TrEMBL record:
Source organism phylogeny: Eukaryota, Metazoa, Chordata, Craniata, Vertebrata
Domain notes: The histidine box domains are involved in binding the catalytic metal ions.
Family indicated by similarity: Belongs to the fatty acid desaturase type 1 family.
Gene: SCD
Name of this protein: stearoyl-CoA 9-desaturase
Reaction it catalyzes: octadecanoyl-CoA + 2 Fe(II)-[cytochrome b5] + O2 + 2 H(+) = (9Z)-octadecenoyl-CoA + 2 Fe(III)-[cytochrome b5] + 2 H2O
Membrane topology annotation: Multi-pass membrane protein
Main localization category: endoplasmic reticulum
Length: 359
């Protein structure tokens, strides 16, 4: 069967995809403020349990001088050491054993999915539902990726969407490429991030035992799954040298996954077209999509954060959607939210930058 037919088959015949067409007619009130009934960001969103990632255009930065950066030296030193180790890993990379390449590829994709399919599309945005075996895999994969626990990741990410590109956005891209890429992790949070983050509705995360379990045992979990396991397996099972195991399979692989994820916050907020909404900064960036397994369609994603594909399309440069669809075939993922074509075209007409190519 040709790939596009197979994709249609899998996308449509397992009937749990919810197509989003009818706008809810209620005013939402929550900790971060009130979204007006007329806000275009409320249209077509039918997730009953979650509204905390919808853009609030009414929020403005406070006037006056900006607070000075307060450096977190521990993070600066550890991040520098990691990247020096990863650079050495690049030198060792050509001389790895073949199984080590396979192991690195497996660890790269699994930990990336722990972020994209897990922390991002499932837990931050609730764009689909997952049964326990899939959530178990995702929480383990997420711990392999070591980017803060799911609870903290989702809280930071919801304020990023809600107060995008203001002081309350943890990686505010208006503060430049470096700040939105990694700099934000090396300084204390802006007071507005703490203030708005504390007001967010996070009860869905607090109620999920698996998420709270990961948070409780996060440190030992990370030491084991992000560092010890990926180093010991190649060394023990196929006699890889210890330096290759440590510098390539662990440090280089970890730094790579970190950087491609960060590119979503930096490059995809700066470079690319805005076919869906030219009034916001996030952009469509194919290169970021390639590295970040489908997360570079960022103008679309900020326009429709409730779409499980984080893109207008499904399997187009989007390994994460392919993975979620495969899980749906197995019955492990369901209730995938997809925005209707009509709603997308209406948005393009209303606010697009006229670069949209249909077809
Ligand atoms: Zn973003
Ligand atoms: Zn998002």
């Amino acid at each position: 069967m040709p790939a596009h037919l197979l994709q249609e088959e899998i996308s449509s015949s397992y009937t749990t995809t919810t197509t989003i067409t009818a706008p809810p007619s209620r005013v939402l009130q929550n900790g971060g403020g009130k979204l007006e009934k007329t806000s275009p960001y409320l249209e077509e969103d039918i997730r009953p349990e979650m509204k905390e990632d919808l853009y609030d255009p009414s929020y403005r930065d406070k006037e006056g001088p900006k607070p000075k950066f307060q450096y977190v030296w521990r993070n600066i030193i550890l991040m520098s050491l990691l990247h020096v180790g990863a650079l050495y890993g690049i030198l060792l990379f050509p001389s790895c054993k073949i199984y080590t390449y396979l192991w690195v590829a497996f660890y790269y994709f699994a930990s990336a999915l722990g972020i994209t399919a897990g922390a991002h599309r499932l837990w931050s945005h609730r764009t689909y539902k997952a049964r326990l075996p899939l959530r178990l895999f995702l929480i383990i994969a997420n711990t392999m990726a070591f980017q803060n626990d799911v609870f903290e990741w989702a809280r930071d990410h919801r304020v990023h969407h809600k107060f995008s590109e203001t002081d309350a956005d943890p990686h505010n891209a208006r503060r430049g490429f470096f700040f939105s890429h990694v700099g934000w992790l090396l300084v204390r949070k802006h007071p507005a991030v703490k203030e708005k983050g504390a007001l967010l509705e996070l009860s869905d995360l607090k109620a999920e035992k698996l998420v709270m379990f990961q948070r409780r045992y996060y440190k030992p979990g990370v030491v084991l799954l992000c560092f010890i396991l990926p180093t010991l397996v190649p060394w023990y099972f196929w006699g890889e040298t210890f330096p290759h195991s440590l510098f390539v399979a662990t440090l280089l692989r970890y730094a790579l996954v970190l950087n491609v994820t960060w590119l979503v916050n930096s490059a995809a907020h700066l470079y690319g077209y805005r076919p869906y909404d030219k009034t916001i900064n996030p952009r469509e960036n194919i290169l970021v999509s390639l590295g970040a397994v489908g997360e570079g369609f960022h103008n679309y994603h900020h326009s429709f954060p409730y779409d499980y594909s984080a893109s207008e399309y499904r399997w187009h440069i989007n390994f994460t959607t392919f993975f979620i669809d495969c899980m749906a075939v197995l019955g492990l993922a369901y209730d995938r939210k997809k925005v209707s074509k009509a709603a997308i075209l209406a948005k393009i007409k209303r606010t697009g930058d006229e670069t949209y190519k249909s077809g």
